[in-house]
Amino acid sequence: MDRVAIIGASMTQFGQRDAWIRELLAEAGQAALADADVSPDEIEHLYVSNMASGEFEGQTGVPNALAHDLAAMPAYTARIDQTSSSGGAGVYAAWQSVASGASDMTMLVGGEKMTHRSTAEATDVIASLTHPVEYKHGVTLPSFAGLTARLYLDTYDAPRESLGKVAVKNHKNGLDNPHAQFRKEVDLETVLDSPVVADPLRLYDFCPITDGSAALVFCSESVAREYTDDYVVISGIGGATDTHVVHERADPTTMGGVVNSSDIAYEMADLEPDDIDVAELHDMFTILEFLQSEDLGFFEKGEGWKAVEEGVTDRDGELPINTSGGLKSKGHPLGASGVAQVYEIYKQLIGDAGDRQVDADIGLACNVGGFGNCVTTTIMESQ
Amino acid sequence: MDRVAIIGASMTQFGQRDAWIRELLAEAGQAALADADVSPDEIEHLYVSNMASGEFEGQTGVPNALAHDLAAMPAYTARIDQTSSSGGAGVYAAWQSVASGASDMTMLVGGEKMTHRSTAEATDVIASLTHPVEYKHGVTLPSFAGLTARLYLDTYDAPRESLGKVAVKNHKNGLDNPHAQFRKEVDLETVLDSPVVADPLRLYDFCPITDGSAALVFCSESVAREYTDDYVVISGIGGATDTHVVHERADPTTMGGVVNSSDIAYEMADLEPDDIDVAELHDMFTILEFLQSEDLGFFEKGEGWKAVEEGVTDRDGELPINTSGGLKSKGHPLGASGVAQVYEIYKQLIGDAGDRQVDADIGLACNVGGFGNCVTTTIMESQ
Question: Are the beta carbons of A242 and A383 closer than 8 angstroms?
Fold first, then answer.
């Protein structure tokens, strides 16, 4: 089968942006068209990954606005929402549009505009994805993270410091990402002494509220060859859910959606966890990087923290994780994050990651919605 | 190529429902599983068509909730939003998931819960899909409809009564649809004497605000044969946009999205407009049935109104349109409508449409988002 390729990508500056969602989407979309050297009238399907433009700024129908703003009409458009993993779901939708033969050239733009709302308001919009009974009791995603972090540290005898080291590593990586929201190193003491948010997690264990957008251009591998030598193929992709009623999970330190979505992706790509050279994980909270690195099969259960302690996941380690800076330092504009993960892997695999460059032929992106409620895993290979 | 088939379908009672969105989705989902004789653990992809559960009731992440409520985990889920054509976009997403090989068994559930909000509030949520500049000037979809109806009547010398006859026909059809919100005949005088909403359109030219849900089960044709003889295949499907800046359109009486999406669908199915035996059109406003019936190629431009006057589109006419009662009498729960259109065509093609049954082997559903901003057209054939 003709595999699906990515031939161009972009991301905007992440951070506090003086631009509305449709402006952010258009900015990334135009840049990706330029990067792929594709004209807007070649785009047949145009997907937008976005969780909540209606809730955040009272604007819906943004894919249609984007088709207008990019002069891509009459390209077919739709919005793909899978809460915080909308970006990964958009990658899956774009992949399906090409793999099914419905579209010869598909663009995905993911974005979110959030910083004009207070942190409490934004957290409440995000919390609306939780089960109504849990929501009613005041549970938000940060509080789930705190409970799970405590359980993980106790169960696997991991030191609190190991969580802090995730933040330190990812901030260090973000220093070399010109698009990152925070380009500043932090030391372990700063992380450990920052204000408590949800015990044992502190401010620096959390990603920020962010505005931003990212875009990708997809086509079949045979079409890709007509455009560029610098393309990557998606060799494996899968999605899966876990119960959104977190208190029903047998073991909250295992993310079933990560296990199941990566099983599908590995099987499709005919690859094993050991084959992965670089990965972008969904470190919305530091604890999530441990859980995903284990549930993806990179490390044994309960040993993800040791890999961070030993530098295995550093940029110069055996398996660099979150070379982009991760959600932690790059920022987390909900609908953009999964797209920006794939942007980073694409850049690494075509050797265009600048100061962040690592030696990699095979990369993986894992995008998590809710508290592991729905997950997409994408495996890419350089050519 | 193995075509994509529909092997089961359901729709809930449409109208004012004492149930939240996740209850409505689960109700239709369970019924479609039963209709298809498929167990929840066979579902690999589960899509939800929904425009605005966050805006209407502060609940997001509904696909994940549905996977839980149907015991379909770890099925992959995502929400597909294309405003009022979210249902048609969901059909396209489900088609792509099977056609790409990503999923062997896909369920789509479309739904919306709206009636707990006032008509003004609901209209405002819907109007948030318009261009910000048009929105700022108070333009809502009903006002676009009024302006376009006036232009159509003047341009094509059509009598005001012809619009009223769309309402009369569709109410008559809805009388035999047990799921319809309004099961009552209306006469032309009632329509023409109803209160003005957006001149020349009156109350009975508009579809109501509605709660409801509908569901479909998709698989490849070869898999379908293992389950049932009563399946239909999707032989053509396409989607397209038109500018959402309605005042920029060269001719607002032509819906470019309908023209372009149906061109794709006809070509894929290798069919002509004349081949269609029955159609469900998006009669959110009576004028839209004229425009679509022309832009789909059923009638010459400016002559759609004559077809209604002459009874061509009656249930016993040459080309029955909206045998379900249409959005006009059946109701218009945004995310459900495009799914319910396909439900009706499915029922007609397998000969299970009860008192609404017509003689048909090939059917078409046209689902319109915004004021023609984005459109999907689906062509189905009986086996």
Answer: no
